[in-house]
Specification:
The protein is α/β, with parallel strands linked by helices. The chain folds into two domains: about 5-75 and about 335-440, Aspartate Aminotransferase, domain 1 (Alpha-Beta Complex), CATH 3.90.1150.10; about 80-335, Type I PLP-dependent aspartate aminotransferase-like (Major domain) (Aspartate Aminotransferase, domain 2, 3-Layer(aba) Sandwich). It has 15 helices and 14 strands. The strands form three sheets. Strands 4-10-9-8-7-5-6 form a seven-stranded mixed β-sheet, with helices on both faces. A four-stranded mixed β-sheet has the order 1-2-3-13. Helix 8 packs parallel to helix 9 (about 235-245) and helix 13 (about 335-360) packs parallel to helix 15 (about 425-440).
């Protein structure tokens, strides 16, 4: 499997996308507004999406296992969501105040997630985690935040730490160093960020015990989605919950991605009750969204009544009615039966990939939970971010480009998701396409 050959085939199929990219370079740095969507030599430009399929500017049809980075759980342009949005926008695009749609989505989320007694809306997952971290600091009066190595929680300074660090610069596995994940992150952030090792309960306990007096919160993606969709080891999150409770540390579950794995998110599936939860992606039905919520006594810091809020939280488009209506329509479609079907599709995909890798004796494996999955190009036991790093650093992009040429869209790092618009045939097509890509080299 030659990367050069895959790139050559890709560029031959995407002349119009290349022309658009050249235009974009004149007005945007790198020609884009989302670093994560860029890849060399240029990304293709989307024209439309329907169901499980997307078409680019050159008319190429691809099965979409990316789903706008897992946010399109119903697939593209689901009729009920489109209808709900159309009805709202005909009455106005946005307003300088609340609408009933905000109440209805808040009711749905608090009903689905018992740990969320009250909730507020934002426009992105980044804003959701930013506000949750600020809230934990206000509630506890403490300055520091703990996060896990390999976890992504958005692009604000406080979480742009040790997202995908080079292990050579990140210290020991049991006591990871805080490493800035972007230029422009000030040294003060690193001093106030404690980095924890995923799935090592003993090491986490030692670090947290030493830092507890200054720790406002531990933020955790319960599936370590960015680090490879590596589920927690048995008892790991339970010990983390007990540890944070013992020291009065706010436990934040970042369910921006993991909320799609069950009716009540990963916390329902794993049986853990955090203090705060952040949401995004699927709860907006395909439109920009974020939300954060949790215990009423903590969320009360945002209550503007009786003398003013202790934390100010503005946002011109917070709880935009179109987004709220799209979220309500999406959650209405996500019945227990829908989740069961999604689980079955992803189980079929993971099983097919596992059998393929075994049959071809490839150094690789697949992880995931619910409708999420990640391809890994290592045979090491997967326990944390470091163990998930591919032995051949070029392998993920070779597979990504190969699948693109086979008519399959995944994320560049190998994360994927099944949608309600997919069939068993679509899942089998993914496995067969991967087989052809691997057979090329």
């Amino acid at each position: 499997m030659s990367l050069d050959k895959e790139l050559s085939e890709y560029t031959a199929k995407t002349h119009l996308s290349r022309a658009l990219h050249d235009e974009a370079l004149a007005v945007m740095p790198g020609g884009n507004s989302r670093t994560t969507t860029f890849f060399d030599p240029y990304p293709f430009y989307f024209q439309r999406g329907q169901g499980a399929h997307i078409w680019d500017a050159d008319g190429n049809d691809r099965l979409d296992f990316n789903g706008n980075y897992t946010s399109l759980i119903l697939g593209h342009a689901p009729p009920d969501v489109i209808k709900a949005v159309q009805q709202v926008v005909e009455a106005g695009l946005s307003f300088p105040g609340p609408t009933e749609h905000e109440i209805r989505l808040a009711e749905m989320l608090t009903r689905r997630v018992p740990s969320v007694e009250q909730i507020r809306f934002t426009n992105s997952g980044t804003e959701a985690t930013l506000n949750a971290v600020r809230l934990a600091r206000a509630f506890t009066g403490r300055p520091k935040l703990a996060k896990f190595e390999g976890a992504y929680h958005g692009t604000h300074d406080w979480v742009m730490v040790s997202v995908s660090p080079d292990p050579k610069a990140a210290g020991s596995r049991k006591r990871p160093k805080a490493v800035a994940s972007s230029a422009g992150v000030p040294p003060a952030v690193l001093k106030h960020t404690v980095v924890l090792p995923w799935n090592d309960a003993e090491a986490c306990e030692q670090i947290v015990e030493a830092e507890a007096a200054n720790l406002a919160a531990v933020i955790v993606d319960p599936l370590l989605s960015n680090g490879g969709t590596i589920p927690p080891a048995e008892g790991f999150l339970e010990r983390l919950r007990a540890l944070t409770e013992r020291h009065g540390i706010v436990l934040i579950f970042d369910e921006v991605i993991s909320f799609r794995v069950a009716w009540g998110g990963a916390q329902e599936r794993l049986g853990i009750r955090p203090d705060l939860t952040t949401f995004g992606k699927i709860v907006g039905g395909g439109l920009p969204v974020g939300a954060f919520g949790g215990r009423a006594d903590i969320m009360g810091f945002y209550d503007p009544r009786k003398g003013g809020a202790r934390i100010s939280h503005g946002g011109t488009f917070n709880a935009n009615p179109a987004t709220m209506a799209a979220g309500v329509a999406t959650l209405n479609a996500l019945t227990p039966e829908a989740y069961a079907r999604l689980d079955a599709l992803a189980d079929r995909l993971r099983g097919g990939v596992t059998r393929l890798l075994q049959a071809t004796r490839r150094r690789g494996q697949v992880t995931g939970l619910g409708s999420l999955f990640t391809l890994h190009w290592t045979s090491e036991p997967l326990t944390d971010y470091r163990s998930s790093r591919p032995k051949d650093p070029e392998m993920p992009i070779r597979v990504f480009m190969g699948l693109l040429n086979e008519g399959i869209l995944l994320t560049q790092r190998g994360l994927g998701a099944c949608s309600c618009a997919m069939s068993e045939e679509d899942v089998d097509r993914f496995v067969n396409a991967l087989a052809r890509v691997l057979a090329r080299g």
